[in-house]
Design brief:
The protein is α/β, with parallel strands linked by helices. Helix content is 32%, strand content 27%. A hairpin with a 2-residue loop joins strand 1 and strand 2.
Length: 422
């Protein structure tokens, strides 16, 4: 059954590539109607919400905190949040990711915003996800030999069940020492490497000898500095997978543009700066029923692409994933009011300051103070002060720090972030 679902998802993804915009919307409407009927029967939370409503837009927008507050009544299993956490934490501590409840896998999100999340996925949903993602990342047909290295915080046992003579998965646990991971990678030489950009940078710095056929960045925001260094070393485009607990959201086309996987999810835009195309995505997963994701506001800042992509796809195109809302900094203007500064403005000031800069981190510690790390050690204080002055902000105190801030191999790397006290 799993293999059939996996293959069906793979070939459906392939045939949907050239859909027109009209066909994409028609497909989404059809899936939403079917999904809402199912979820309103199986989920107590949505059954109550659906009473007296007739339109999908009547569903309220929910956030992560609301998802976790109502977790027990949202999921269609009636599984309590407390029991789910217990099962998931046990899997994390033992590194045995077979943890299940009624044939449903349970896992923890990485919680980069400081709040851990839970996710549930049935075997059917996992097989559908795997088929869709493989169709989008493989360099050759599924019928030819493929090998993929997955650098992940937590393993997905579904990959092992799909392993065959033609398709091999190598799981690299990010909890293990980098030296072990590097040695094993050199030995196995997979065709495709899927890893966070911070780990891909470590492979460059360790001078990985063999060259894969494809490099895919995932789990963290792909910074321009990282992208250029990784691309230059491996002599290829760095593709991206934009995925989170809430869904498999977007993948890179051969022109390097991130396209939303609109055959799997619908994204509504909640603009935070319409002139620049910055928005928060409101996600509806078109296939998940075990833990429904309906009009879920994701805490990420996306930037829409204003022009059509040359690849010809009618799927929504993104200029970039700029980062989390937590990465938007707030400072005082000269008149005393407080306004946001998007992380891309800070990135640009640092990157364009000196071409030799290979790494940096910025943490806003208070409304009028920044900690800044730059490698190699270059004084960029004057440039940042001029930037704030030109923008009409009160110039914050800029502290130069001599080592990376909050750097841990198993955690997601965030180059620009707002401290919890701001």
């Amino acid at each position: 059954m799993k293999l059939f679902i996996f293959l069906s998802a793979y070939f459906r993804s392939y045939t949907r590539k050239n859909w027109s915009r009209k066909k994409i919307i028609r497909h989404q409407d059809k899936r939403i109607t079917k999904m809402v009927k199912c979820v309103s029967r199986r989920s107590h939370f949505y059954r109550e919400l659906w009473k007296g409503k007739s339109k999908f837009s009547d569903f309220p927008i929910i956030s992560k905190s609301e998802m976790m507050s109502h977790f027990s009544s949202i999921n269609s299993l009636g599984l309590s949040k407390e029991r789910a956490f217990k099962i998931a934490i046990e899997g994390e501590s033992t590194r045995n990711f077979d943890s299940q409840y009624k044939d449903v896998s349970i896992g923890l999100s990485s919680g980069t915003s400081g709040n851990r999340g839970l996710f549930l996925a049935s075997k059917k949903e996992q097989a559908l996800w795997a088929g869709s993602i493989l169709e989008k990342i493989l360099t050759t047909s599924l019928l030819r030999k493929n090998s993929i290295a997955l650098f992940l915080r937590a393993n997905n046992k579904l990959y092992e069940t799909l392993r065959s003579k033609r398709l091999q998965f190598f799981y690299f646990d990010l909890q293990r020492p980098f030296e072990e991971l590097f040695s094993e990678l050199e030995e196995k030489k997979p065709k495709i490497i899927v890893a966070p950009p911070s780990l891909l940078r470590m492979l460059v710095e360790a001078k990985l000898q063999y060259k894969p056929e494809k490099i895919i960045s995932c789990a963290e925001t792909l910074d321009r500095i990282d992208e250029e260094i990784i691309s230059r070393y491996f002599k290829m485009q760095v593709d991206q997978i934009y995925q989170c607990t809430e869904g498999f959201l977007a993948t890179t086309c051969h022109h390097g543009t991130l396209h939303v996987n609109e055959d799997l999810v619908r994204i509504e835009k909640e603009y935070i700066d319409e002139s620049s195309g910055r928005f928060l995505p409101i996600i509806t997963d078109l296939y998940r029923e075990t833990q429904p994701i309906i009009r879920y506001r994701l805490n990420d800042v996306l930037v829409e692409k204003k022009t059509a992509c040359q690849c010809g796809s009618h799927y929504m195109a993104l200029e970039k994933v700029e980062g989390r809302c937590d990465d938007v900094l707030y400072f005082k203007k000269l008149d005393g009011s407080t306004e946001p500064i998007f992380p891309d403005f800070i990135r640009r000031e640092i990157i364009f300051n000196n071409e030799s800069i290979s790494d940096y981190q910025v943490v806003q510690t208070s409304i009028d103070e920044l900690d800044v790390f730059v490698e190699p050690s270059i004084d960029i204080t004057t440039n940042l002060e001029q930037f704030f002055f030109k923008k009409g902000f009160q110039i914050p105190k800029i502290n130069t720090v001599l080592q990376p801030i909050h750097r841990d191999q198993k955690d997601k790397k965030r180059r620009i972030q707002r401290g919890s006290n701001v």
